[in-house]
Specification:
Structural class: alpha/beta
Length: 362
């Protein structure tokens, strides 16, 4: 067997796939089964050899396979994917079916993993972003906000003030983002934020008019989550209609200060990222944290970061996890200036896609 990755790299990836199966896939049996199969097969793991180190993850592998199927490739593997019209549950035949699919499409899969990046652009997180912006209003004393989405992908989260969060809101064609809140605390009932200026930046943004690029975003969704897919399609259509500014910026960290300098007077800048920093290499991550923290200190901008609980942007105190909630969580941290210095505050923690949340800030 000719392998490109080193034994150490293969062992690392196998552990990542097993952890992903354990921690991230309780609601997606197909992906749990696929991750365990990949973890035990060196040739399947080696498909990731061409991806950059920070992108060598199960998400990218799974999305590459899903994208080929969404493109219309005819193969029995599609029978396991509800997003492709399949209804077959994972079974003993899945392993052979997967290996046959990979054998037929190995070159395309390797190229896809080499040239693409994981971009979920999950609008379900807006169910937590919206109350977090209410908290920004309370702490800043103004409802007028300017929102910068760093790592914006297609810019779908820029529509946070457009989406529905209450089933009583019956606007047609607007995604409803339900979220189950746990614990005794709730977000502040502040005046409604007014996003007077918004912008998304990304090294490789996705154009919502590019059908192939949008298919890739669709491939990054879980194949059995029909409600999530429907919300995604609605959000893409809204983004096509609204034309929110999304810019291709090679160095997003360096672009933040010029954006701040160009804002009109009387607005509260909010720098936002969600499940983006996890893909930064360590030196770039450290630079980003130091740069944005310094901008908070010097300009009064607020930084709202929603990342995995293992990735912290500053010192925060978190209560013990609620035992009834899954271990895989996002932590929503707000960095804002208090008495001239940055203060880090844990606002909430949530499901990675915003299905449930727990408000933490008092």
């Amino acid at each position: 067997m000719d392998l490109t990755l080193t034994p150490a790299d293969l062992d690392r990836l196998a552990a990542l796939f097993r952890r992903f199966a354990d921690m991230e896939c309780p609601e997606e049996p197909l992906y749990e089964a696929l991750c365990r199969l990949v973890a035990d097969d060196l040739a399947l793991l080696d498909l990731l050899a061409g991806a950059s180190p920070e992108q060598q993850r199960p998400n990218l592998w799974l999305a590459a396979v899903h994208d080929r199927l969404l493109a219309g490739v005819a193969h029995p593997l599609a029978a396991y994917y509800p997003s492709c019209g399949g209804h077959r549950a994972p079974d003993d035949a899945l392993a052979g079916c997967l290996r046959d699919f990979v054998a037929q499409h190995a070159a395309e899969l390797r190229d896809c993993m080499r040239t693409h990046t994981t971009q979920t652009n999950e609008i379900g997180r807006c169910a937590v972003l919206w109350p977090a912006l209410h908290a920004v209003v309370v702490r800043s004393g103004t409802t007028r906000l300017a929102l910068l989405d760093v790592g914006t992908s297609a810019g779908l989260n820029l529509g946070v003030d457009v989406y529905r969060y209450d089933a009583a809101d019956t606007r047609r064609g607007v995604p409803l983002l339900p979220c189950t809140w746990h614990g005794p605390l709730r977000a502040p009932a502040a005046p409604t934020p007014q996003i007077v200026q918004r912008c998304g930046i990304d090294p490789a943004p996705v154009a919502v008019d590019d059908a192939v690029a949008v298919r890739w975003l669709r491939a990054c969704l879980w194949p059995s989550d029909a409600a999530r897919a429907e919300r995604f399609e609605q959000a893409v259509q809204i983004a096509r209609d609204r034309r929110w500014p999304v810019r291709e910026i090679a160095d997003c960290t360096a672009a933040i200060e010029p954006w701040l300098a160009a804002l009109p007077a009387g607005v509260q800048p909010v720098i936002f990222n969600s499940w983006v920093l996890t893909y930064f290499e360590r030196p770039a991550l450290q630079r980003h944290i130091e740069t944005v923290t310094d901008l908070v200190r010097r300009t009064g901008a607020m930084w709202l970061s929603a990342e995995a609980s293992t990735l912290t942007i500053g010192p925060v105190e978190l209560p013990a996890p609620r035992p009834e909630l899954p271990k895989a969580q996002s932590v929503w941290t707000l960095c804002h200036r208090v008495d001239g210095e940055p203060r880090f505050e844990a606002l909430a923690r949530s499901h990675g896609h915003g299905r449930w949340a727990e408000w933490l800030a008092r």
